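Crash report, auto-generated. Payload:
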Amino acid sequence: MKQISQYLADAQQQLLQVLALPASTARIEAQLLLRAVLPMATRAWLIAHGNEYLDAEYQAAFEVLLKRRLEGEPIAYIVGVRDFYGLQFKVSPAVLIPRADTETLVEAALAKIPIEKPYKVLDMGTGSGAIAISIALLRPQAQVMALDTSLTALQIAGENKQNLAVKNLTLLQSDWFSGLNGEKFDVIVSNPPYISVQDIHLTQGDLRFEPLQALASGKDGLDSIRHIITEAPQHLNAQGWLMLEHGYDQSAQAQQLLSAAGFVEVVSLPDLARILRVTAGKRQG
Ligand SMILES: C[S@@+](CC[C@H](N)C(=O)[O-])C[C@H]1O[C@@H](n2cnc3c(N)ncnc32)[C@H](O)[C@@H]1O
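Recovered output after restart:
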């Protein structure tokens, strides 16, 4: 029988060796896995109770979760939550795990949405609802709509809307713009699928476990981006903004597509790693 601190140290060691995680990440993940089976455990609780012994039922449950993680399943799917923009979102294998990179898109959108005005905002391909909910909470006067084709994704977004007490958000099942009935918006944001269907990364790491329809989009990865840029002008008010996240090497193509569709003030913005990750343009007239 082992003490809690020993369980954590052993799990950290295995995560380091099998998944080659950095030491700090392995420590945090070991704690997250144990906290997922111990309802009372905060990080402080784990430290304070480090020399206590785990009951057999908790040991067994912890071993199951650790095995799943060692087999490569993303930690967010195992513990069922992921933090994004200072909020905690429920996630499941039905939705993309929200990425820190996507906070660049939220910040770019917030910069265009005045606090005091009832702007109409659309998030296309909302997944867990991370982008739409972050915007809706920080811009309570805005009327935010979030759509996705996936009903299971919309169910998760709905749970997040409820858990985070979001009032100004409507969820819609729609294949991109098709279900909008001509409605127009002041800001449209999207983190669409943008990986080439032939990209080898789809069969590696976390991506293996995430929904393919959230990741891949045609031969060059740009099918969804092309479609959204082509259709967006009909769904934007005059001077409205379209803002898209894209791959690390797609900013030039995104700029060209926006300019060709008549958008002005086209600009690309860097993420935390200084990679141009979001490209935006304004509808003329
Ligand atoms: C890269 S994920 C983004 C999820 C979430 N917005 C985020 O940033 O974490 C792309 C999302 O687009 C959705 N999607 C794919 N094709 C779509 C379509 N034709 N119409 C609407 N949504 C679509 C997927 O279901 C998925 O939830």
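Post-recovery validation: Residues 95-96, 98, 102, 125-128, 130-131, 147-150, 153, 175-176, 191-193, 213-214 surround S-adenosylmethionine (CB under 6 Å).
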